[in-house]
Amino acid sequence: MDDSSALLPALLIAAGAGAGAWLLRRSWQRKDQKHGLVLGGWLLIAASLIWPAWVLGAARGVFVALALISTASLIVVASNYTVRQAKARAARESLAPEPSDRATTRWRETLRWLLAGPIGMIAAMGVGIAYAALVPGEQQTRLVVGGMIVPVAWGACMAWTLADNRILRATAVLVGVAIVSFTAAIVKGFA
Amino acid sequence: MTPAPASKPRKPKDLMSRIPAGFVRAVLRGHSSLGLAFAALIYLICLSGSIAVFAHEFQRWESAAAPQVTAVTPDAVQTAFEGAIARGGPGVEHVYITLPSADFPRLLLYVDAAEDRQYLADAKGQIVEGSAFAWTEFITRLHINLHLPQMWGGFLVGLIGVALLSSLISGILAHPRIFRDAFHLRLGGSKRLQEADLHNRLGVWALPFHILISLTGAFLGLTTIIVGVLGMAMFNGDVNKVYALFIPAPPVDDPRAAPVLDLRPMFAKLPQDGGRIEYVFTEHPTEMGGAALFNVKHPDRLAGTDSYAFRRDATIYNEKQAATNNLGEDILAASGTLHFGWFGGGIVKIVYFALGLGLTYLAASGVNIWLARRRDKGRPAPSWERAWAATVWGQPAGIAAAAVAALVADAIVPTIATWLAVSLVFLAATIRLPAERLSRIGSVATGALILIAAATHLALRGGIGAADGMAWIVNAALIAGGLFLILWARRRSVAAAKPAPVAAAA
What we know:
The complex is a heterodimer of chains A (about 190) and B (about 500).
Chain A: H1 7-30, H2 35-50, H3 52-56, H4 58-78, E1 82-83, H5 106-134, H6 139-163, H7 167-188
Chain B: H1 21-52, H2 55-62, H3 74-87, E1 94-98, E2 107-112, E3 117-121, E4 127-128, H4 134-145, H5 150-173, E5 186-187, H6 191-205, H7 207-234, H8 240-243, H9 264-269, E6 276-283, E7 291-297, E8 305-311, E9 316-320, H10 327-340, H11 345-376, H12 382-409, H13 412-429, H14 435-460, H15 469-497
Antiparallel strand pairs in B: 1-2, 1-6, 2-3, 3-4, 6-7, 7-8, 8-9
Helix pairs in contact in B: 1-4, 1-5, 1-11, 1-12, 2-4, 2-15, 4-12, 5-7, 6-11, 7-10, 11-12, 12-13, 12-14, 14-15
């Protein structure tokens, strides 16, 4: 037996999520924070996320809805675009924040990328493996969740080390995390 | 004494607005560095991934003339299995059988022997012509391992997934107004501001999809190295102990020669509980130690595949019902399906394709913003602008050219060579052509090559009388896409030729 068709539920999800996004946009546009519009908008989006679980399968329905809610909301945003006229004011006067212009040296940049790359990876693996070793639960669940922690922790390390001006602090923290987590995991072992 | 004027109560700041400006600028610097370092690879992996969502449809397109098979009997599978082994040559180690489904109405057999081959069979199990899937193999392998050796390519793609995940984290932290401005989409005016609006709106509204894709992609890509480190740290270097927790133990090895494994009694022993047999993996099918693993998929479940492992004598030595999965087994089983969007039929694939192209654009627009910022500040980087235009348009053009090569040559090596050659031609063109012209030429070239791919398909792979209607849908989509790109380039040329309006001083 094949999966049940997602076509009709998808149209209903898109309609519900689109209506929800439209209500949120109405509230945003009025600038007076009408709570009814905000509440109604989020309720419609939440309902569009949840009800497909009963029709399309518990996990399957939610993930079908997740993809469609993003798409429907983007369609609402895209269909309400405005056209901006070019101004003579130099764009260099833009109010948007600018990246920091920190002074750096070659060895600091090298260390920064080492922290974001291999050292961050080792620290993230230590955290993931320590989770698998130390947290109670089914072996497979601990291993998979530990494995999922690795890219998240590594990504967070990258974001942090490439931003932080105090690079020695980042070095100390990552090396410390790697040593502590691997040691704890090896001492405890996997059971 | 006059009373102090009643001050208007200040509206409390939202959480994001409380982020200090210095922190925002530092994170923005990191976001910018990371994006620039990995932009080209993120772009290529997202573009190829968006196309790879339709891998089954492309396989049907490539084998349009092959018979459509909606159901098969165990006898037909056995006939096809024996036929594929007979044609597979010496040293058959494994045969992987994909049974027909609504998504992929073919009986496909992959023979892992001295030289790997794949075959299609009809509903009676007779091996038929038309099993060349060079294009599908090209696009899926480009996405999964960039055509590098499996381990290194997989690791690199996993690393890119991590970089993407990191960019999502820093992107949110670096833009305190990203949620407050969630409905602002202002086109026209300054290129930098337009690109920033598109970048931020796509980034925020499709954030759940972006997190899902980058997390599952990174996890799948890094699995080998994570398991390796885990094995070293906790299993005395034996990674097989880690895998043994998730997959059935291999059969006892017995290399004595034997007749081809008989799958029919195994089919008869599978429970009739509403599941659909998806795959049959056979191991050493011409040895006494031969075994077969049947995967039976249950409807409406992301991780709903039961597995039954049989010995040669059709006795079950391992069985695992998806209903008894724990959370970890469910997550693992669902990761690939969720990553590729293969769980909700055509509508979810179309949505994944659109959101995937959005993610691809996110990578491209990040660099566009950086280039526009430099230009606005009076420090343009024309050589980087050219290189980026060559990357952004060289890849789709190269992929489209690879489709033509795959249809003509029926082999993976010329397909990869064509993609590489077109990519290099675009990079070489940066010596002579400015970025804007490269973009227009790239758009026209991609459109034209897509149209040529559709024409080549009609000429060589079934033509008007293709047995599979999917071929018509794919060709129609290709023609529409090709024409769109050509007309879009033409529109950009006309717009560029118009004199710029004189801006009024404020």
